[in-house]
Amino acid sequence: MDDLSQKARNILKANDQGGYTVPHAKIYPFQWNWDSAFCALGWMTFDEPRAWQELHMLFKGQWPSGKLPHIVFHQDAETYFPGPDWWHVDHMPKTSGITQPPLVASMVLKMIKIAKDEKLAEENLKILFPKILAYHRWFHNFRDPEHTGVVACIHPWETGRDNAREWDPALEAIKTDHIPAYTRKDTHFVDQAERPTDLDYDRYVALIMYLTSHQYDRSLYFEAPFRVADIGTNCILLRANKDLAELARRLGKTAIARELLHIIERQKRGIQKLLQGTHSGFFYSKNLVTRRRLRKPGAMAFIPFYAGLKGKTEGQAQINSFDQWAGQVRYMCPSLNPDSPDFEQTRYWSGPVWAVVNYLLIDGFNRAGFTDHAEKLKEDTLELFQNGFWEYYDPQTGQGLGGADFSWTAAVYLAMKTEL
Ligand code: GLC
Q1: What percent of the chain has pLDDT over 90?
Q2: How many Cβ atoms sit within 10 Å of the Cβ of residue 2?
Q3: How far, in Å, is the centroid of ligand 1 from the Cα of 160?
């Protein structure tokens, strides 16, 4: 085994809290939804029982409605804000009240494909399948009650890209004058210049206050002050539905597979109708409050390939942008268009490269037949890993940023090595 694989395994082991993996011991000392989906895949490459356990622990946080929260607070920890008390959720274990990109079905399908212990895989799939299905149904019922085929996110954290500059126009409407005093903890561990601004945080807190006071009701789809159709979440959910349909077929659940195919068709139509630019064929997120497109794309501009969607020009608009961005940064793919005046190469989701996003994009480029682009992205990502498994990376210098020895980054390396 190569040295880096050993290091990556050690990171997962060090961040193992007894059945679940924390993204980072200090900055994120709980179990996160989409992080754990990646971590399960990473574990699967060397400890299959532990990999399945990761997901069972995550689903302990699932609500009766089917929602899978973005954080499960299995135990107390002092180093993270906002902790369980801020969310006012009546559930054991304690959880947050919002969700995250629903990646879990797709990671489970990948896990099934690389499983050496097929019997164990089948047993676990049988337990997980109805829970994942309930999660997807929740997404469509609560976040697309009008059946447009496009789901809404009601907090930037739900998109997984907290301070993506895409959300700025939607966040301007958020009033912050009534928020209670609070103390950020992230900046104790990471340089402020690599994290969201204080204004961003005030808005995140204001939104939590709003959501808790409305008890995470279904009406939030119509009334929440922040409502965006994120291209990332929508494409991840579309792909996850396709992968879940494949899992359903494997289990002989044909009626459910048909239900999912119906949803998939609706999603395809909805995403193309609501999120695709009329002229360029490029896909954008949309502010559902103002119905305006959010035109500050980052790496997720290329995620439609991962969902099997190409633009009107068969993906050429996206490919042209990718090539243009690649001419401007040393390492692809930055989390914001490097041409944007807001581009900051070290600030979180406003410029840096995230290996987990690259992993999804590589899958998408390969699917769409853009294998050279997949190759370029893979080479860049593997080079970045030489600097350590960081939370994110400077797209110009390759320097690691945010948290060191980061779980999902290590997991993605193990997954990439297995698939190489
Ligand atoms: C940050 C990221 C989010 C991730 C979490 C834990 O909030 O924006 O995507 O899930 O950290 O790593």
Answers
A1: 95
A2: 9
A3: 6
Distances (CA, A) of 222 to 226, 227, 228, 293, 344: 10, 8, 11, 18, 33
216-220-226-232 Cα dihedral, nearest 10 degrees: 80
Residue 134, pLDDT > 60, answer: yes
Sign, CA torsion 24/28/31/33: negative
Q: Which amino acid is at 91?
A: H
**Which residue in 357, 110, 57 sits closest to 240, CA to CA?**
110
| pLDDT at residue 108, as a whole number | 98
d(CA 75, CA 31): 10
Query: Helix 118-143 and helix 48-59: axis angle, to 10°?
Result: 30
How many other C-beta atoms lie within 10 A of the C-beta of residue 318? 28
| Protein residue with its CA nearest to atom 4 in ligand 1 | 160
Q: Is the pLDDT of residue 140 over 80?
A: yes
Q: Is residue 23 lining ligand 1, measured as CB closer than 6 Å?
A: yes
Within 8 A by CB and 6+ apart from 294, the residues are: 166, 167, 169, 170, 228, 284, 285, 286, 287
Sign for the pseudo-dihedral over CA of 54, 420, 406, 134: negative
Residue 17 has pLDDT above 70, yes or no: yes
DSSP H helices in 282-405: 316-326, 355-368, 371-385
What are the CB-based long-range contacts (under 8 Å, 24+) for 259-264?
A: 260/136, 263/136, 263/140, 264/238
Task: Note if the pTM is more than 0.85.
Answer: yes
Q: What are phi and psi of 278, to 5 degrees?
A: -65, -40
Determine the pLDDT at residue 420: 56
Q: Which of 15, 22, 31, 32 should be mutated for ligand 1, with most atoms under 8 A from CB?
A: 32
**And the tokens for 377?**
């992205």
